[in-house]
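Long-time lurker, first post. I've been practising inverse folding by hand and with some scripts of my own, and I keep getting stuck on stretches where the structure tokens seem ambiguous. Below is the full token string for one chain I'm working on. Before anyone asks, I'm not after the true native sequence, just a reasonable design that respects the backbone. If someone could post their per-position residues I'd love to compare against what I wrote down in my notebook.
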């Protein structure tokens, strides 16, 4: 029985392999001009026939290297990799286009920079059922996304892609702050409040426009209280009541301030053995 099952599995693998080969090797009807082949590639891309589209664009670049369609085909090949979901390939292709055609209109309007940033966003870790949440995973792709988004906003502030880039940026910052809070609480739960404080302060420094300052400050103040630093914690919570934060966040800070006053008086002192 085992031998039969193995044979069935082997035949299935061979069949799938043959299908993939035939898909990649499907004969194409190349035309005489660069424009015609480029347009055929666009049609295949629109139809989501990515291998065929990629081959048409490669043909244009190879056979008509001095045509204006060569650069367009190069860009379209990058778009094909993006739409296919091979984002690392797409990033490399867009960056190559940027190096080779720095004055191209698609570069100057911010499209290339936007697509690089967008590809990095697509590579960010997701939340999957039964897997650790994205805030607990490696954030390298998220940091790359933030860097490329900021490049776009700084270099092409008038680009039509900036608005969507800013939307991406809010999501990216949310991910990064969630991660910093996760790490800070990880330190707290394991009895390392100093590590938590350093992590929160670094997050406040690195992401001042995250919109999550109050959440970070509340966590910081709680940690300072646990470390026996009521005076420092009082200053932290007072920042929340002074700055323009939400009513809910201000109320939480006021509750902590009331606790500090009842427990330590109007002029609390930090424990000199902590810090």
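-- Answer (accepted) --
I ran through it position by position. Result:
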């Amino acid at each position: 029985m085992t031998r039969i099952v193995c044979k069935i599995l082997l035949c299935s693998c061979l069949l799938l392999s043959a299908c993939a080969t035939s898909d990649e090797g499907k004969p194409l009807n190349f035309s005489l001009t660069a424009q015609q082949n480029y347009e055929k590639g666009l049609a295949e891309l629109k139809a989501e026939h990515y291998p065929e589209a990629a081959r048409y664009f490669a043909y244009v670049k190879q056979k008509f290297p001095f045509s204006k369609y060569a650069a367009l085909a190069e860009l379209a090949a990058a778009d094909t990799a993006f739409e296919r979901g091979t984002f690392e390939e797409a990033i490399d292709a867009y960056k190559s286009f940027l190096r080779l055609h720095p004055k191209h209109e698609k570069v100057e309007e911010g499209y290339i920079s936007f697509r690089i940033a967008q590809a990095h966003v697509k590579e960010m870790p997701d939340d999957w059922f039964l897997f650790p949440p994205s805030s607990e995973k490696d954030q390298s792709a998220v940091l790359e996304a933030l860097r490329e988004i900021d490049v776009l906003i700084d270099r092409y502030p008038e680009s039509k892609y900036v608005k969507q880039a800013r939307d991406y940026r809010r999501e990216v910052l949310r991910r990064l702050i969630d991660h910093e809070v996760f790490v800070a609480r990880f330190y707290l739960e394991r009895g390392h409040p100093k590590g938590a404080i350093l992590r929160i302060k670094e997050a406040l420094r690195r992401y001042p426009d995250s919109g999550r300052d109050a959440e970070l400050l509340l966590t910081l103040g709680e940690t300072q209280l646990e470390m026996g630093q009521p005076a420092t914690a009082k200053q932290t919570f007072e920042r929340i009541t002074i700055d323009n934060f939400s009513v809910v966040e201000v109320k939480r800070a006021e509750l902590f301030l009331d606790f500090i006053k009842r427990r330590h008086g109007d002029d609390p002192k930090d424990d000199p053995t902590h810090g």
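A couple of notes from the structure itself: The radius of gyration is 27 Å. Residues 162-189 form the longest helix (28 residues). Happy to go over any region you disagree with.
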